[in-house]
User: What shape does this take?
Amino acid sequence: MLSQGRCRFCNEKLESTLVDLGMSPLCESYLETDQLNTMEPFYPLHVYVCRSCLLVQLEEYVDPEHIFTEYAYFSSFSEAWLKHAEHYVAMMINRFALGSDSRIVELASNDGYLLQYFVQAGIPVVGIEPAKNIAKVALDKGVDTLTEFFGKRLAASLAAEGKKADLVLGNNVLAQVPDINDFVGGMKLLLKETGVITMEFPHLVCLMQENQFDTIYHEHFSYFSLITVEKIFAAHGLTIFDVEKLSTHGGSLRIFAKHDNNSAYPVSSSVTNLKAEEESFGLVDFSAYLTFAEQVRETKRKILEFLIDEKRKGKIIVGYGAPGKGNTLLNYCGIRTDFIDYTVDRNPYKQGKFLPGTHIPIYSPDKIKETRPDYLFILPWNFKDEIMRQMSYIREWGGRFVVPIPEVRVLP
Assistant: This one.
């Protein structure tokens, strides 16, 4: 475990707060019925900004092995995310001329949701996924998967076996790494001289502009701007040569990186343009960081005002989804079954359990037809369009959709 109170990249003392969300349980630690009357650990959700390198981060309170060895998030339950993965694979094959003599390595490959498309194209893959329950699903799909945590040790071992990669990718994993230097250093060791790295992660600017405080939880150790991630990669001999803005997860970045001495890919103007945007937003002079905490407090007030008003009118409100972000929102706002009767989730792994902290029960989506609620409170708001299509039948009895972020809204 890294030293408390120090930046996980540059080791400077952490003294500046971005936002403090109080105490919260681990967001993926769903409870069984027999656990409801037992002690439940809560940890601080206090987010700092490093004054030296500008990395936004949580301190590490829990060992990653405790969080990720058995995990409840399966990527394949989102149709939109599968389409995103399929499109990415087609684009990578075309842009970098990947074929049967290439090797693809995905870090945090989950249930094989993405690598399955490379397998279908006849391209050799290796997934690295520490959660045993999820890795088993990938293996059952025919996706070669190692059940390990990634870092320099594993990277050196794969390189020594002649398994360097033409493409190293990671979607929504960079934020979940406590030892960022070991992880990025490992990618440097694993990458072929002519290879490319792509990483996708939520963009700090979107988090702050859109009040996405619910994307802060213990599994997310860091929150990245391009300015900061470029410094981290440069410290390990890697150059970011391209960047794309994505709509996924409320606004993400996809970075493309190479070895410093690889001249095949010149640095795109997209990199300099986005850094200029981040500077104008105030990420370099600290002005943007200072206003975020009050934005979050006001968002909480508005959510609670809506729920109090509607419950006083006798309305039935239920949740849709049991995502990690939902658990941050519910615990920070103090929303329990006094406001939301239950929530539903398509993932059978979560059904029959209870949300951490709030103890809201989780059912199959079929429950909604039985109880005909007035409002469906969408917790994974980043998938709201997909969810509203799937659940459009609630309009038959006048049911309406609610999203809480960037501020509470009732959608038609």
Summary: The first strand starts at residue 16 and ends at 24. The first helix runs from residue 64 to 68. The CA atoms of residues 116 and 142 lie 8 Å apart. The chain has a mean pLDDT of 93.
